[in-house]
Amino acid sequence: MSIKTVSRAVRGDGPVKEATRVRILAEADRLGFQVNDIAAGLRRKDRSMATVGVTLGDFTNPFFAPMLRGIHSVAAQHGHLVLSGDAQNDGELEHRVIRQFFAHRVAGLIVAPIGADLGYLAEEASYGAAIVFVDSPPPALGGLLDAVTTTNEQTTFEGVRMLLDRGHRRIGYLGHPRSGSGALERWRGYQRALESAGIPLDMQIVRDGLVTDAEATTAADAMLTAPDAPTAVFTDNNRLCTGLLLSDAYERQPIDLLSFDDFPLAPRFGVSVIDSNPYEVGRVGAQLLFERLADRAQPAQRAVVPARLVVRGRG
Fold this sequence. Notes:
This protein has helices at residues 3-11, 18-31, 37-43, 64-77, 91-103, 120-126, 152-165, 181-196, 213-224, 238-245, 248-252, 266-269, 278-294; strands at 51-56, 81-86, 108-111, 131-134, 146-150, 171-174, 206-207, 232-235, 256-260, 272-275, 302-305, 308-310. It is α/β, with parallel strands linked by helices. Strand 1 (51-56), helix 4 and strand 2 (81-86) form a beta-alpha-beta unit.
């Protein structure tokens, strides 16, 4: 029996008679044999491993768990292991994690970006690296590299219009830094909804550049205790909405809330949400990655996963 036949059998990637495969796998199990993907990667022409690197903004955010499951579901179909890195809302850490993935010769990279400067990834892609942005591609790179996003602007517009239809005329805004396209598009959706109702933008009830739930709590306390406070608030991600719910001002006087991205406590507090379907965003992102691995010369692709407005609250 040849080495090539044994290799095909244990990897499941070539024509081997079933009876032969069963015998080989039984013997490999008896001997405790384990395939070494690192050594195998060094033998392959492209010297990449059967692994996919995934860099996410913050593992403590429940938004990212279903996204990662979606990525895993596709990677498993292609026989690839997923390695994940937590950027912890730190652009410098994100850069280091990405560099480490490239150093480990991952086959491809999926990034849910949080850093303000990701231009170096365009250079990596020009050398043949397979890279896909998910959730919020950097505006300067969105047309250069594969990306998956959601209907940020349109569904935010619909959500804020819902609050306006409920009679609210002062709708506050809590937002994260607008370095990515997602935050920019949600901001535009908020502005467009106010404009459609003939309501001027009031920056006194806007707080942006927020990252943590603690920052959102502080911002919400200041906003909701000010004279002429808003009667409803839109938060452009679930972490900021959680921070608002923890504020003393909200506890004293609950108001109508709309959050971009769902989270477990939203139904309990009657928070309307824009569900961006992170599982599907991750799944589609992984599909684009493996399409890129199959054809690195194809033009950059941009996929859009529709978000869904889920109306709850006081009305």
